[in-house]
Structure formats: structure tokens, C-alpha cells
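wait is this the right file?? whatever heres the structure
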């Protein structure tokens, strides 16, 4: 189940908030590895490291790294301070964090009886790659004065630190904070469930808008129900029960070679059409030509439960082209799968209109 390797740190390649990319010399050659200093300590050239090379060996899309499991000859100091929520529970790297909703938290009183998002728009998307595109659409329509929280589900990467996009979006002020929920960890705020994560976004961070997606990565099996993106439908339900305004971003593609994802992905049709039991505003991007007609036709059955909202994509390409972080989904950039990014940006544009 785990491919173990031992190596020596050759050099530090680069760093971003919560993560370090290093080169490690092993018996099989030099590999790129990723370390989370908060978990394992800070690796330096010459250190011995234990690696998990499973994702690297399998060639997973977001797994182009070996993962540093430990610095066995230089263990980090024990953590200090409060926090008794355990995440990545009962794995060798289970970690304790301070949850916003736990009794030792300064926010416990604010969340203890919290039960409403006060109509806050909650934009829900399948993939993590939709996040920056959603923000392009939102800020393109509402340039300033909007507080946005990202609520990260645990269907993809568990550490928020893995996401260079999140780090950059925080740096430039496009995100006011990251809330990690479930087994995910490493956000500015930790929460036990999606429900308390959304409430924390509103009542702890003071967000005007929340964006909910899984972390980087996506698990899919080519079956109707076997994909991690079913959580998008569950997020619609959570936002609705908490008196939020769920806005559903469609996963749309013209560049994916897999039939089940061409036009509107079956992930969106299943998550919103079968899993989401509460109504949402489903944003249908007004794409040109036959492809746009196909997308509109595929969305039509969702109108049984949801409100379909047509949103113009005029001007969104320019906003996306100026995005301060790299846009990429499944290895495809903006011009290789424009429809995908336009659909996400359209959802952000609609969310901005709800704040007017």
C-alpha cells in the first residue's frame, strides 16, 4: 500500500506557505519531494528523510512528488498550545489542531449556537481548479470590499498547504482565509464539519461569500457514484439548511477527451441532480454556438429542483487571462479548456450580483 524510500536532501527548490519542495537523492536517483514543516519539521540539505513514493510511482495527476514522512535523525519539537481535534485520524501522521468549534477555541461561543449564514452566497464547485476562476468572475464584477472565505473539503488533498493557488490568493488578498473541514487540515481556521466550516467562514472570518470545493486532486472511478465530487451536492444541502444561498458552478469541458465529461460533466449532473436535495441557483454559462446549446440542453433536467440562471460570459476571458495565479485543470490551461474556466467564472460573476 505504501512505497517507502530513504534518501538525503540535496537542496531546497522552493517554498510557499506551509510547504517546501526539495530534491532528495535516493538509491534510484534524484526525486522531487514535498515536506510540510508543521508536520515533520524543516528539512535542510544533508538531512536524512523517509519518503512515501506511492503517488510518484503511480503517476497520479497531482502526485508528482514523493512525500516526506519524517526526518528520523532530527525530529521536530512537540507542539505547544491548545487544540484537541485530531485530523488524518488513526493514520501514522494524525495531527492535532485547534478547531474553531471546540471548547478551547476563542470562537467557541460565537459558534456554539450559530445556526444561520444570514443569506451568504455559497459558491459550490467540483474541482479545486475552479477556485481562482470563480474569484476572477467575482472580483471582475465587484473589484473591492468583498470578503471571501474558501472552505476546503476533504475529497482531494488533505493539507491546504499543498495548494500553491491558495497560498498566492491569500497573499494578494483575494482570499481572506481558508477553512479546512472534515479530515482536511492546514487552513487559517479548522472545523469539524462542513456545516461548522461554513458558519466559521461567516461568523469568524466575516465572509460575504464562501467558495466550497475539495482540495487539489480528485478521485474518480468512471462509475456513476464513485467520485469524490459527489460532495458538491452535499455542500448545496449544507448551505441551504444553514440559510445560505447556494450557487452551483457547473463542471463544463470542451477539451476533456472523456465522453462523460464533454459538455456538462456527469459529476455535476449527478451531484446537483441526485445528491443535492435542496434547491440551488445553477449557473449556466451563455457559451456561443452549438456547444453552448449543448450545455443548456444538458442542464435542462436540473430545473426540476433548481433555478437555472443564465449568465453572460462576455468579458470573462479577459478577466481570466489576467488571473494572478496559474489556471490549470487536469493539465489543461485557459485556452485548452476555455469553457471550463468560463463556467466557473460565470458562477463568481453571479455570486457578485447577489451582493449588490
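ok assuming it is, sequence goes like this
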Amino acid at each position: 500500500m505504501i512505497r517507502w524510500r530513504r534518501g538525503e536532501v540535496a537542496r531546497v527548490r522552493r517554498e510557499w506557505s506551509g510547504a517546501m519542495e526539495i530534491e532528495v537523492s535516493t538509491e534510484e536517483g534524484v526525486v522531487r519531494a514535498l515536506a510540510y514543516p508543521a508536520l515533520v519539521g524543516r528539512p535542510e540539505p544533508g538531512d536524512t528523510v523517509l519518503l512515501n513514493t506511492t503517488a510518484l510511482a503511480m503517476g497520479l495527476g497531482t502526485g508528482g512528488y514523493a512525500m516526506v514522512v519524517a526526518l528520523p535523525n532530527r525530529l521536530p519539537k512537540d507542539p505547544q498550545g491548545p487544540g484537541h481535534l485530531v485530523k488524518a485520524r488513526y493514520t501514522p501522521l494524525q495531527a492535532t489542531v485547534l478547531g474553531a468549534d471546540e471548547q478551547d477555541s476563542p470562537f467557541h461561543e460565537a459558534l456554539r449556537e450559530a445556526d444561520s449564514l444570514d443569506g451568504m452566497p455559497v459558491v459550490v464547485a467540483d474541482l479545486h481548479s475552479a477556485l481562482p476562476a470563480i474569484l476572477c468572475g467575482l472580483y471582475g464584477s465587484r473589484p473591492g470590499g468583498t470578503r471571501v472565505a474558501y472552505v476546503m473539503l476533504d475529497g482531494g488533498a488533505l493539507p491546504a498547504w499543498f495548494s500553491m493557488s491558495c497560498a498566492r490568493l491569500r497573499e494578494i488578498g483575494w482570499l481572506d482565509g481558508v477553512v479546512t473541514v472534515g479530515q482536511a487540515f492546514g487552513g487559517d481556521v479548522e472545523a469539524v464539519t462542513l456545516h461548522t466550516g461554513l458558519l466559521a467562514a461567516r461568523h469568524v472570518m466575516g465572509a460575504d461569500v464562501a467558495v466550497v470545493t475539495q482540495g487539489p486532486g480528485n478521485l474518480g472511478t468512471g462509475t456513476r457514484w464513485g467520485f469524490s465530487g459527489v460532495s458538491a451536492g452535499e455542500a448545496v444541502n449544507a448551505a441551504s439548511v444553514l440559510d445560505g444561498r447556494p450557487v452551483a458552478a457547473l463542471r463544463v469541458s470542451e477539451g476533456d477527451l472523456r465522453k462523460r465529461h464533454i459538455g456538462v460533466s456527469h459529476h455535476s449532473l449527478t451531484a446537483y441532480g441526485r445528491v443535492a436535495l435542496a434547491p440551488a441557483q445553477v449557473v449556466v454559462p451563455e457559451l456561443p454556438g452549438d456547444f453552448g446549446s449543448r450545455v443548456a440542453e444538458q442542464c435542462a433536467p436540473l430545473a426540476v429542483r433548481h433555478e437555472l440562471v443564465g449568465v453572460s460570459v462576455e468579458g470573462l476571458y479577459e478577466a481570466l487571462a489576467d488571473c494572478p495565479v496559474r489556471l490549470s485543470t487536469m493539465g489543461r490551461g485557459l485556452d485548452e479548456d476555455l469553457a471550463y474556466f468560463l463556467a466557473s467564472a460565470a458562477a463568481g460573476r453571479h455570486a457578485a450580483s447577489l451582493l449588490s
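The mean pLDDT is 94. so i think its the right one actually
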